[in-house]
Amino acid sequence: MSQTLQRSEARTTAETWVSAFADALSARDVDRVVALFAEDSYWRDLVSFTWNIKTVEGREQIADLLNATLERTAPSNWEITAEPATADGVTEAWLSFETATGRGTGHVRVVDGRAWTLLTTLDELKGHEEPSGDRRPKGAEHGANPDRVTWQESREAEAKELGYTRQPEVVVIGGGQGGIALGARLRQLGVPTIIVERNEKAGDSWRRRYKSLALHDPVWYDHLPYIKFPENWPVFAPKDKIGDWLEMYTKVMELNYWGSTTAKSATFDEAAGKWKVVVDRAGSEVTLEPTHLVIALGVSGKPNVPSFPGAETFQGEQQHSSEHPGPDAYVGKKVVVIGSNNSAFDICGSLWEAGADVTMVQRSSTHVIRSEMLMEHGLKPLYSEEAVANGVDTRTADLIFASLPYKIMNQFQKPTYDTVREVDADYYDRLEKAGFDLDFGDDDSGLFMKYLRRGSGYYIDVGAGELIADGSVKLVRGQVQELAEKEVVLSDGTRLEADLVVYATGYRSMNGLAADIVGQEVADKVGKVWGLGSDTTKDPGPWEGEQRNMWKPTQQQNLWFHGGNLHQSRHYSLYLALQLKARQEGIDTPVYALQESHHRA
Question: Where is the SnoaL-like domain (predicted)?
Answer without folding.
Answer: 18-114
